[in-house]
Amino acid sequence: KLILLIFKTRFHAHYWIRKYWSAAIIGLLSFLLSFSPASFLLIVASLILTSILLVFSKQSFSKIKFLGAILFITFPLALFMKILYIDKFFNGVSQTEANWQIHPPLTFVFLTTGPILLFCWLGFKNYFRSLTTIKIMFLSFVFSSYLMFFSPIAFYLKTTNTRFLSPLNYILLAVLTVTGIKRLRSLSIVCLMLLLLFIPGNIEGFKSQINDPNLVSPISYLPKGIIDGFKYLDTLPGKQTVLTTPAQFLWMIASIYSGKPVYLNRLGLYNYDQKADITAKFYWGSLSEHQAKEFLEKNQIGFITLTSIENYPLDKVSQYGFLKKIYQNQDVVIFQLVGR
């Protein structure tokens, strides 16, 4: 939308209208920077590439000047917001995301993009026949997206490279594909190619998921006993915190069915690594009796859960003298902190 807005602004006849929309663009870029720095960087990179291409293609100097002015104002603003806002509030998340880098082989990217890659090349000729400014911006954005995803720049910016993959990439591929396919005399060839390429490669995957629904994720199909245990917590008075292990993302299930707060929550939030570390030590019995009780009391944890889909030993938790078993079935055991 920002790219379209920039394009629209450039062709307004009246100076005051261009000035108004230019201010709106800078405001939107600043807003985007506040919650999605990766998308902001992609927009800026596409503007830089577009400006370079416009220079080499000897386009109107006013277009280059317009894009250059936006970049000139945006860069200092971005630096100011980084120091004042992003570094201050997102430092913990940034450290986590910096270690989350995914660099698959190029063949994997082609395969996961899907059959659309077989047909998008059919639209290249029509797309480049009349290369307008908006087309250059669109192409620059997609190029910047893949370039930043495969480069190590995300690590130095303290974010995950997956944030540089944008849905706009697939929109461009779809536009190229539709443009190319509509020029074919018959769509039967396209349908036949899709059937031959898509069905054989996925039929085994479909069969596996039908035969074993737990193959996708251990928390997609939870045993009924786990849900029953969390529902039991909802019948108990008070809002004491529930402790779950860091082995599975059961915190979201526990919070929904128990109606109580949980100690471990979304990955990437403040101090998650430290919380997960001490929780694991608690479940492995690595803490002394005093340390374990102090940990629970300090964080107002009243209930401790352990399910059948987690690999922590039950006897380690049972050895704590300040815990009382209040619920058990074949899928979950729940303890309560006593003797406060």
Number of domains: 2
Order the strands across the largest sheet as they lie in space. 1-2-4-3
Low-confidence stretches: 7-16
User: Could you state the order of secondary-structure elements as H and E?
Assistant: HHHHHHHHHHHHHEHHHEHEE
Strand content: 5-15%
Structural class: alpha+beta
Number of helices: 17
The main β sheet shows up as: 4 strands, mixed
Q: Helicity range of the residues?
A: 55-70%
* Gyration radius, rounded: 27 Å
Distance between the termini: 57 Å
Shape: elongated
Mean pLDDT: 76
Would you report the number of β strands?
4
Report on this model:
This protein is α+β, with helices and mostly antiparallel strands. A 4-stranded mixed beta sheet has the order 1-2-4-3, with helices on both faces. The model is unreliable at 7-16 (pLDDT under 50). The longest helix is centred in the N-terminal third of the chain and has 29 residues, at 61-89. The chain is built from 17 helices and 4 strands. A hairpin with a 3-residue loop joins strand 3 (323-328) and strand 4. It has helices at 2-10, 15-35, 37-56, 61-89, 91-98, 106-113, 116-120, 124-129, 133-150, 153-156, 167-181, 188-211, 224-234, 251-258, 272-284, 289-298, 314-318; strands at 241-243, 301-307, 323-328, 332-337. Helix content is 63%, strand content 6%. It has 2 domains: 2-189, no CATH class; 224-337. The radius of gyration is 27 Å and the shape is elongated. It comes from Candidatus Roizmanbacteria bacterium CG_4_8_14_3_um_filter_36_10. This is Glycosyltransferase RgtA/B/C/D-like domain-containing protein. Keywords: Membrane, Transmembrane, Transmembrane helix. The chain crosses the membrane at residues 21-54, 66-86, 106-124, 136-157, 169-199.
